[in-house]
Specification:
By secondary structure, the chain is an alpha/beta fold. It has 4 domains: 170 residues, 3-Layer(aba) Sandwich (Rossmann fold); 91 residues, Glutamyl-tRNA Synthetase, domain 2 (Orthogonal Bundle), CATH 1.10.1160; 62 residues, no CATH class; 92 residues, Arc Repressor Mutant, subunit A (Orthogonal Bundle), CATH 1.10.10. It contains 23 helices and 13 strands. The strands form 5 sheets. A 4-stranded mixed β-sheet has the order 1-2-3-4. The protein has a 3-stranded antiparallel β-sheet with strand order 5-6-9. Strand 1, helix 3 and strand 2 form a beta-alpha-beta unit. The longest helix is centred in the N-terminal third of the chain and has 16 residues. The structure holds one RNA strand of 75 nucleotides.
Length: 546
RNA sequence: GGCCCGUUGGUCAAGCGGUUAAGACACCGGCCUCUCACGCCGGUAACACCAGUUCGAUUCUGGUACGGGUCACCA
């Protein structure tokens, strides 16, 4: 068969050669050991944790090695494409602090290895498609969807592997005349790779999993779809070669199509990148109690937007993913509280290969510590940023009282063992609400031990003797004196031992004070809070109880 | 069903032939204390199963079970 002629019939417009492509996209001149990585999201408008998870690995190993990290949009499936999805991906990655050195940007491309949108690379793929046809490694296939369905049914019934291969590859040996005829009649066709029937095994050294073995590809899989756009498999091989990726980081669901990719790299005579197949993120299914893959429909926490809405800071997400990704991260963080997480030496070999469960409790804990490490000014800024987007009323409040807010954020944080009250920005709005009259409300009941008479007496006398300039010790001495005067135990233990001799203990008294001041039985130090609020507010809030 | 991947406490995980089988989160006690938090001390809790190799297996090999993935002109 004259494959050269067949190639010309199929791709009459392709004049460039593979060598031209190699010249157009030369090897990158990078320092020894530099990694070139990428993420290749498809623009479906939904960015999930798994995307970020893989992005983070790529970003780390690229930037840690002085390499390049880029964004490639895998838009070969026009059916799934959603308007504005590219923007969504870029914004999400930007929000979470993942920066690209090159690749697609919202209004075009940035870099010398583009275009970075696969649909715009059609001509490039066709050069290699034609080349494969010329060498007899690819052929046009005119099978319709119905024919393929019927074949699959027949194969399944006969307990054979479904698919187009060997004797089932109907159009493998179609003559040029027949092809020409079919083409002329306007019949749709796809370009298929010509698989070899073999019982060979291939072996790939995965950077995360080690040696992975599987049967060599024998399928006539699709290279170009009927619209001339490549499938993922073909696009991946061409792109990662031409864009000079050194490492391909992707989910383990790709493991099963690895044999096709190996086949193509070999057929084209290219060196394979280093594959890194990551574990799938899982969660516990509430209904069955079993582990399962996170699902877009059932699990809101899969969407990155969930974390934005909850107000979990990007740093917390990073730390969370880093602890899942590298088992020694927590240890490193424990030993070094100050360093940026980017200083952590990330390693592919330390990665877990079984699916990790997304544990929101753990995330909250990490978030609490991350915020705990931030200076109050940083918290103010980031929290305000979040409020501007998700809680406009609160943003207004914070802006109205900037000094008070920063002071409030510092309550209990100057001590040797600082408080960690804030978990998320959303929770912060709730927690901090008592610092502002606009949002202040009494949420807890006054302790039952304090009857109305002693309550009135307490607040009256407390206010009468209140000196805003008292230091903590002087203030507390006054509270103690009042406590005793009202017939309450100054030492909680005394009350515990002899509950009959007292109306209650100082715990009840201070709780009463705390509720009047903050609305909650649980709140930070009363003396500190009083000073953040200022004398006027303190007096006003307490006066209501006299 | 074929092919692949996986399996250490509730969760995340160290471990890489001999360990009292780390640590973190969660949970439960206790201490500290004006509440809550923080912090500290302590506790409950694990090598899926069965063979084999070995003086000795959580660690190596095989099988079973269970979980996951994939078998598209989707990525």
């Amino acid at each position: 068969m004259d494959y050269i002629r067949l190639a010309d019939i199929l791709f009459p417009d392709v004049t460039a050669s593979p060598e031209d492509m190699e010249k157009m996209f030369p090897e990158r001149s990078l320092p020894e050991g530099a990694c070139v990585t990428r993420i290749g999201p498809s623009p479906t408008g939904f960015v999930h944790l798994g995307n970020l998870y893989n992005a983070l690995i790529g970003e780390r190993i690229a930037h840690q090695s002085g390499g390049v990290f880029y964004l490639r949009i895998e838009d070969t499936d026009n059916k799934r494409e959603v308007e504005g999805a590219v923007e969504t991906v870029i914004n999400a990655m930007n929000y979470f602090g993942v920066h690209f050195d090159e690749g697609a940007v919202s209004d075009g491309d940035n870099g010398n290895y583009g275009p970075y949108r696969q649909r715009q690379r059609k001509d490039i793929y066709h050069v290699f498609a034609k080349h494969l046809v010329q060498r007899g490694l690819a052929y046009p296939c005119f099978l319709t969807a119905e024919e393929i369905d019927a074949l699959r049914e027949q194969q399944t019934a006969a307990k054979e592997n479904p698919g187009i291969y060997g004797k089932y590859a109907k159009y493998r040996e179609t003559s040029i005349e027949e092809v020409q005829q079919l083409l002329d009649s306007g019949k749709e066709w796809v370009l298929r790779y010509r698989g070899t029937e073999t019982d060979e095994y291939i072996s790939v050294n995965d950077a995360i999993r080690g040696k992975v073995e599987m049967p060599r590809n024998n399928m006539d899989f699709v290279l170009l779809k009927s619209d001339g756009i490549p499938t993922y498999h073909f696009a991946h091989v061409v792109d990662d070669h031409l864009m000079r990726s050194t490492h391909v980081i992707r989910g383990e669901e790709w493991l099963s199509s690895l044999s096709m990719h190996v086949e193509l790299f070999n057929a084209l005579g290219w060196q394979q990148p280093i594959y890194c197949h990551t574990a799938t993120l899982m969660k516990i299914d509430e209904e069955t109690g079993g582990k399962r893959k996170l699902s877009k429909r059932k699990d809101p926490e899969l969407a990155l937007s969930y974390y934005q809405q909850e107000g979990i800071s990007p740093d917390a997400i990073w730390e969370f993913l880093l602890t899942i990704l590298n088992s020694n991260y927590e240890e490193w963080r424990l030993a070094d509280q100050e360093s940026d997480y980017r200083d952590f030496p990330y390693s592919l070999s330390k990665m877990s290969i079984s699916g990790a469960l997304v544990d929101l409790d753990k995330l909250r804990d990490i978030s609490k510590n991350v915020i705990g490490r931030m200076p109050a000014e940083t918290i103010y800024k980031e929290w305000l940023n979040w409020c501007d987007e998700y809680s406009k009323d609160f943003a207004e409040l914070i802006r109205k009282y900037p000094e008070r807010t920063v002071a409030a954020l510092n309550v209990g944080r100057m001590a040797a063992k600082p408080r960690k009250d804030l978990e998320t920005w959303k929770q912060a709005c709730d927690f901090m609400s008592f610092y502002y009259d606009e949002t202040f409300k009494i949420s807890d009941e006054m302790p039952a031990e304090c009857d109305e008479a002693s309550r009135k007496q307490f607040f009256a006398e407390y206010l009468a003797s209140y000196d805003h300039s008292d230091d903590s010790a002087a203030w507390f001495d006054k509270v103690k004196a009042l406590t005793e005067k009202l017939g309450f135990a100054v030492k909680p233990k005394d009350f515990k031992k002899n509950p009959d001799q007292f109306k209650g203990s100082i715990v009840h008294i201070t709780n009463m004070l705390r509720i009047a001041l903050t609305g909650h039985a649980n709140a930070p130090d009363i003396h500190e809070v009083s000073h953040v609020l200022g004398e006027d507010i303190v007096r006003a809030r307490l006066a209501k109880w006299c």
